[in-house]
Amino acid sequence: MAAEKEAVEKVKLTVLADDYAGYGSRLWAQHGVSYLIEVERKGGKETILFDTGTNADPILYNMKTLGINPSIIDLIVLSHNHYDHTGGLLKLLQAIGRGNIPIIAHPEIFKTSIILRPKLEVVGLKENTREEAEKLGGQWVLSREPVKLTEAVYTTGEIERSVDFEREAPLKVYTVENGQLKVDLFLDDLSLFICLKKGILVVSGCAHAGIINILKQSLRLSKASGIRAVIGGFHLVGASKKRIEKTVEAFRKLKVEEVYSGHCTGFQAEKIFAERLGERFHRLYCGLTLNFEG
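Below the sequence we write its predicted structure tokens.
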């Protein structure tokens, strides 16, 4: 898909929401993910909001504290339907304050998602979110296929599941099909990748599709020779130590230059990443700003 020579000039990613605020921070943490991605390319600049956390209020507070005006957001990408990635959508659209804001997501974003432990709870998008988002200026762009967001920036589309040790997700979620509860296969889980001259940046929400599956698909679509950095949650909370070790080893084999993880990655996984990757591993926190040159 992506041309081999296609590349942005600069990328600035700011963490607006994560489970950790950072030591001595003035910012607010929450259970959830939201990243502001500013992309500079020849002839223009785009600002992408990747996920909207559980609640917009901490995100808007953090944006104000960091001197970021929500009106700069050009489009929104939702990695999947869970509340900790979609809950702030409506209030953030309201804060952006204009119409024709593309919201890129998978067609199954509106499915019912349920957990059964410790009690039955609906964990997907709130009822009527689709219609309310449209009233606030959002325009849904729903695709199973990769979507080009701007020059050298793409969503992965629906992820191909090819890695054996990622076939079973650590988190058990159910959906409803034909009046029956079925195990949710997280087909709506997507990520995005950004092409640099030397490798790609890969940004994930929770990586329910499997972070190695996501990296392999991003490499295949981008035709890139390497991975400059991987940023996001890897949902290894609840995963076995064996799976975590296989995941970290796969990062090493793929020669990922830098890893930035948080949210649902989990303490045990982060510990092993830090031990095996050393200074190439970094912990995400609210307010962290990452800059990459094309």
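The radius of gyration is 18 Å.
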